[in-house]
Amino acid sequence: MDQRKIMSLGRSSLVISLPKHWTKLNELKQGDVVSLAIQRDRSLAIFPGTGSKKGAKEISLHIDPAEKAKTIKRNIIACYLNGYSSIKLFSKDIFPIFQQKAIRNIVRILYMRIMACDAKSMHIVTFMDETQASVTSGIQRMHILSTSLFQDVLTALRNQDPLLAKTAFQLDDDVDHFSFFMLRLVKRAALDPALANKLDIEIGDCLDYQTFIHRIEQVADYATKIAKNLVQLSAEKLKISEPLIKLMVTAGKNANALYDQAVQGFFSNDAETAKEIIERGKFIDKSDKEIATWAFLHEKRNPVIICTTCSIRESIKRIAEIGREIALYTIHRSFKPK
Questions:
Q1: Which element (helix H / strand E) includes 179?
Q2: 3-class DSSP state for residue 262?
């Protein structure tokens, strides 16, 4: 740690000098303005002023004509999550149709825009202003979408309605949109104290938020998986028996309530409620066994229904477990030094 001696300036002012390498890194010069913020632990954070703000990060990706669509998507997402606001794509030959579709699809998901495009190159950018965003509001919006998705899926399950199940897929895309943006935001905040200060979050909380975002995204994924199971059953012209449907819907409602309360407890830092949620999770385990027992005893003539039931109950169980994990995060955070 670099140490600086406090010096006297005039009768009442105390000053310290700024490290030369830090001023060069932030392109500061004499006369520029810096911002000061007193942290909760009484330390002092110094941020470069707006006049020293760097331009948008840019990167170029060279794509082989035979490169798979999934690889291209993964690379663009990686660049986006690492804070690049301008991504230039170049091909040795022309972009094949499957590559063009993959690029345009991921651009839509990431809320980016294609600024320039020809047969051999594309320039995509994002105009999102991270400094105006809210981590808490964004995560809460993700949570609302995920619970709404799960509720629609449970309704589709109760009525064995494949059309409603298909409609729920669209909400999963919305959760993914928020997920990518929020992950980009907290990752940048973890590396940029100035951005963390503007977002009013502590750098030490960024890892918790990152894990939290992943968990909410997983809830939406598990709910979508249940919806796909229902569509598959409909395609096979099969139906699950009413007693088994009731068992799964009841377990699903309990899992959704547990998950929703865990998220609310996380934001309110309610450790007592978190402890209750962890204990209540045991009832989900009991329901899971009841579903499995009924399926194997009464649906044994149809292996497709048994396999589908196993998949649905596993998704419900995982959503409940995510609620318990979030509750555990809340307890851990409650012991964090003030």
A1: helix 162-191
A2: helix
| C-alpha to C-alpha distance for 101 and 302, rounded to whole angstroms | 40
CA dihedral 280, 281, 283, 288 (to 10 degrees): 170
pLDDT for the residue numbered 51: 40
Amino acid at 240: I
* Helices and strands in the chain: count of H runs, count of E runs: 10, 8
Total count of residues recorded for the chain? 338
Residues 6 or more apart whose Cβ sits within 8 Å of residue 72: 63, 99, 102, 103, 106
Whether the CB-CB separation of 309 and 244 falls below 8 Å is answered with yes
Domains of the chain: 7-52 (2.10.260), 58-125 (3.30.110), 134-334 (1.20.58.220)
Q: State the distance between the two ends of the chain, measured CA to CA, in whole angstroms.
A: 23
Cα separation of 224 and 165, whole Å? Answer: 8
**Tokens standing for residue 195:** 């951005």
Tokens of 310: 């196993």
Give mean pLDDT in consecutive 10-residue pieces for the chain, a chain of 338 residues: 83 86 86 78 74 68 93 94 93 91 92 89 87 87 93 94 88 88 91 80 87 94 95 90 90 93 92 89 79 73 83 93 93 80
Which residues, including other chains, have CB under 8 Å from residue 282's CB and lie 6 or more apart? none
Amino acid at the residue 68: K
Strand, coil or helix: what is 67? coil
Q: Quick one: pLDDT at residue 114? A: 92
Residue 32's pLDDT is what? 87
